[in-house]
Amino acid sequence: MTMRILTAVLRTIRNSRRLAIGLLILGVMVLLALFSPLIVNAIGGGKDPIEVAAYEKWLVPGPGHLLGTDQFGRDVFAMVVKALSVSLQIGAIAGIISTVVGVIVAFVAGYKGGWIDGILSTFTGILLVIPTFPLLIALSAYAKNVTLFQVGVMISIFAWPFAAKTIRSQVLSLRTRPYVDLARVSKARDLEIIVTELLPNLLPFIGVGFASSALGAIFGLVGLEVIGLGPGGVVDLGQIIFNAITTGALTLGAWPMFVVPIVLLTLLFAALNMVNIGLEEVYNPRLRGVAGE
Amino acid sequence: MTADAPPVVAVDKSQDSAPSRGVRAWLSRHPLAAYAIRRVGIYFVELWGALTIAFFFFRLIPGDPVQTLIQTLQQNYMYNQQASTELIARYQQEFGLTGNMFSQYVKYMEKLVLHGDLGPSLINYPTPAQDVILRALPWTIGLLGISAVLSWILGVLLGAIAGWRRGKLGSAIATNLSIALSHVPYFFVALILVYIFAYSMGVLPARSAYDSNISPGITPEFIGSVLKYGLLPGLSIVVIGTLSWILSTRMLMVPVLGEDYLVYAEAKGLKGWRILTRYALRNCYLPQITAFGISLGFIFNGNVLVEQLFNYPGLGTTLVTAIQQLDFNTILGVTDIAIFSVLTAVLLLDLLLPLLDPRVKYWK
């Protein structure tokens, strides 16, 4: 079964250039994040380039410091590389948690139907309409010393409804397919039907749910950081932007401090969105070519 | 949280199986009225559910607003004595923090629904939170409302054109640009715009909502100043907003283009522009109206950061200030206002839809 899924995934990627490009950008970023300790080391050449007063303050970009240094004399390039891996981690943590919650809610609601579906869908709908950012800011303002994982959990509280909504509508349409009926007549248990019949067919939509939750989570953390309410002790891309604003990097002309994080995050959002649209295109023939050239 | 839910079903049931035959018959003769009643019922359930979730959410977060208030007072007035228990009790009474969680909830809802009272604010004690919010509200409605509507109109038009001219270079550029940028936070665009126009070129202001040398009023100077100061924050919302509407409109437009009636219109010799606006666009902008209402919540989320960056005196800035001082009543009030606005907008648009689209029939 693993092989079946693997070949299906490969076929999907071959069929969509957009999906391939999105995954490629993501892959490069993940590699960069994985090797970030090595890269940071190489920049520092023995000492820690992110240490306070490692170099002179406000150095302009040059061969020694590709992106210059910040108000504490830290190397901006090294900071950006390290921060990228934090941003990716939060996306992965919150993405996985909210996708799992979303999948469970979607399957219970879509498969069971009836009043359970009524309650769960109304609840999901309410959460989708509430502007969640105030709640998220409030939550983080009261929870100062939290780990990255805990922030991920906090963000997931608001991110799962998107995944749940996407997947539920697909469960509804798959539930009435003949092969599901067949499985039911042959006395398969609910869980068995869900795992062996429904889940494999829903993988692309679970992928969509994951990509959009990850996107929302990264945006959430960046949002918290730029108003100075992020978790302590971690530097993500949003915090570098926050630094740039509060220290007046805009007026000083130290553009790398906010342009580079913004470009990286934009690239990341673009890649996740391309994966989203690519997946939808491949599995929804009606859309094929619709979003295309 | 599941405790909120059972009445949902109850409301639906009571409408599905109305006991009186007369009412039922009347409703089946007036499907539109039946739809409206049902829709309004759902609206109230959603509103109540959302407000309840927000209330308990904020009450369950640790943090003591009374202690914060006393600290603020001590700092501001050099009031160095330890607060007496009496004083604390009085403030707790005033902030609605006495009794258990449920009785606090009942009291809060009662004050909110019957008197529109959100309790005293902390950031501007003892001004009531609703007054603080009402002062900020026009700015946000102006900034966010105009930008949201403008990006919707621009995005739907451009998206329709992009769908209409698919395969052409311009359309491909617009589509790929929207795919790449439609999820970028407004805030990023705002930051880049501020850097270019405010700091590098120095042509537009980057902070506040109007020139403080001009006294507020309905004068040409003041309005001009407001427009000038609103340009950058507004633009940053419009740029990204337009791009995301382009993408979704294009997706709705392309399937419509294959329809027979469009071929017929073309065979009649109608001009391309006329076919686009009168024939094709009419069929794809309707779902976008519903989508507009739903998107308001997201736009509000993004708007908080934009306002904060520009120090714009709207709800977003109020919210951030309130959070920094643990001002429960104001935070909850802003959230409540946002919830109310979004749900009401969605309701109004849903009720408006059957009037705009004769094909929509709400048979139950």
From TrEMBL, chain A:
Membrane-related topology note: Multi-pass membrane protein
InterPro entries linked: MetI-like (IPR000515), MetI-like_sf (IPR035906)
ABC transmembrane type-1 domain ranges (all copies): 84-276
Swiss-Prot/TrEMBL keywords: Membrane, Transmembrane, Transmembrane helix, Transport
CDD domains: TM_PBP2 (cd06261)
GO biological process: transmembrane transport
Residues annotated as transmembrane: 21-40, 88-111, 118-142, 148-167, 202-224, 258-279
Cellular location(s): Cell membrane; Membrane
Cellular-component GO terms for this entry: plasma membrane
Main localization category: membrane
Keyword Iron recorded: no
Domain of life: Bacteria
Cross-referenced PANTHER family: OPPC IN A BINDING PROTEIN-DEPENDENT TRANSPORT SYSTEM
Similarity field: Belongs to the binding-protein-dependent transport system permease family.
Name of the molecule in the record: ABC transporter permease
Species for this entry: Kribbella speibonae
TrEMBL record, chain B:
A GO cellular component entry from the record: plasma membrane
Occurrences of domain ABC transmembrane type-1 (ranges): 137-353
Keyword Flavoprotein: no
InterPro entries, A to Z: MetI-like, MetI-like_sf
Main location per the UniProt record: membrane
Membrane topology according to the record: Multi-pass membrane protein
Subcellular localization: Cell membrane; Membrane
Highest taxon above the source species: Bacteria
GO biological process: transmembrane transport
Protein keywords: Membrane, Transmembrane, Transmembrane helix, Transport
Pfam family, one: BPD_transp_1
Transmembrane annotation, as ranges: 40-61, 141-164, 184-206, 226-247, 284-306, 337-356
tRNA-binding found in the keyword field: no
Recorded family membership: Belongs to the binding-protein-dependent transport system permease family.
Family matches, as PANTHER family: OLIGOPEPTIDE TRANSPORT SYSTEM PERMEASE PROTEIN
Protein name as annotated: ABC transporter permease subunit
Protein source organism: Kribbella sindirgiensis
Source organism phylogeny: Bacteria, Bacillati, Actinomycetota, Actinomycetes, Propionibacteriales
